[in-house]
């Protein structure tokens, strides 16, 4: 990524970015109650008495929510605080039935950590370290719906009390691209760990985007915070718009107000929501209904032991153990589903061919990243993705490896598989898609091609070496593309001397 600056009338401005990502914890219940958390339920059907703040109800921390937050902290190499405490953040709004939010301000569960972002997809080793200040757990508020009635707003408390991890970065990002890379990498880690599904469209993961601008080397400027941005593309748009807006304000002699803003995805602009509150505005104090969290060594050890192989470690293993290129390794490990499909297909193909996984890794990687997606896109609605089983794709790759079908024929076989679900080997036989490796049959065709083109044979032997490709083409045409190109080349070389 090149250096990102904004060219103003008075010179270049640098953008300073920090993100507060709210990630919904994957768990069987809410943070302090046993209510369900399924997305899309009918309004107010997933609300316990605790969530609705009925008098006398006492919160009880959900052990799984705490466990998932600790595992997330470990995945970003952060400090795990074995003693932490819940605080009340006091504010009054119609979707907050308690009149306060239970959060963690002074003693968070997870302290400082970091993650490495790639600055160049083609070279994953070109990285930048982004600091993470903390992860604290807190409960979500409900939701106001303003479009259900002409004169009233409705309140849905299904999300009230849902467990969130607030992952607060340091102001270490300097471009929209870096912020996008950070969110994608963080989302990948959360999904590897299983602590959040990362579904930004459903609100499982959203970001508050803090942006300020300054001349290079100056102190940080006044920042604005744009709330609840729910896609990587929108986060990048917010930064682009807000940075340019602030430069215009400063260069016209004004000052940037510290405020909370909202993003309008239709226009790609932000607008003022309210003046930015400071911690004292919320009158934080320790929650009197909750004891401090004290994590013992066994709990910490169990959390650490449950962690999977993480994206960076998996990418390095693919490069060193499987011999994949940095680019392919990076692409294959970016998403949980991608690496899972690749590893299943790799194991199945190696077993079918009786080879090591390293021997077939490059072939499987190229198929997984390029060939198969291309065929699936080309077939479109005519095919069914459920037909693209691991077994069927392994069978196709095995036929390519043993010379039964060519690369082009493999694509045709896969098309038939997607459309019909038939066995790949049966398709290759029935549809005439097997290539011929029989040396005798190929020799007979080549003899005929050379006899019919005696003048060109003479030219070739007289020094026109480029005609070799002509003979290959004529042979493949005569064999309707079913000749094994490697055998065709070998036989031609022998025949032509």
TrEMBL record:
One family name in Pfam for this protein: GatB_N
Enzyme Commission (EC) number: 6.3.5.-
* Substrates-to-products reaction catalysed: L-aspartyl-tRNA(Asn) + L-glutamine + ATP + H2O = L-asparaginyl-tRNA(Asn) + L-glutamate + ADP + phosphate + 2 H(+); L-glutamyl-tRNA(Gln) + L-glutamine + ATP + H2O = L-glutaminyl-tRNA(Gln) + L-glutamate + ADP + phosphate + H(+)
Q: Which InterPro entries match?
A: Asn/Gln-tRNA_amidoTrfase_suB/E, Asn/Gln-tRNA_Trfase_suB/E_cat, Asn/Gln_amidotransferase, Asn/Gln_tRNA_amidoTrase-B-like, GatB, GatB_C_1, GatB_Yqey_C_2, Gln-tRNA_amidoTrfase_suB_CS
Keyword tags: ATP-binding, Ligase, Nucleotide-binding, Protein biosynthesis, Transferase
Which superkingdom?
Bacteria
Gene3D superfamilies hit by this protein: 1.10.10.410, GatB domain, N-terminal subdomain
**What SMART domains does its record include?**
GatB_Yqey (SM00845)
Under the heading PANTHER family, the entry gives: GLUTAMYL-TRNA GLN AMIDOTRANSFERASE SUBUNIT B MITOCHONDRIAL AND PROKARYOTIC PET112-RELATED (PTHR11659), GLUTAMYL-TRNA(GLN) AMIDOTRANSFERASE SUBUNIT B, MITOCHONDRIAL (PTHR11659:SF0)
Descriptive protein name: Aspartyl/glutamyl-tRNA(Asn/Gln) amidotransferase subunit B
User: What is the species listed in this Swiss-Prot or TrEMBL entry?
Assistant: Croceicoccus naphthovorans
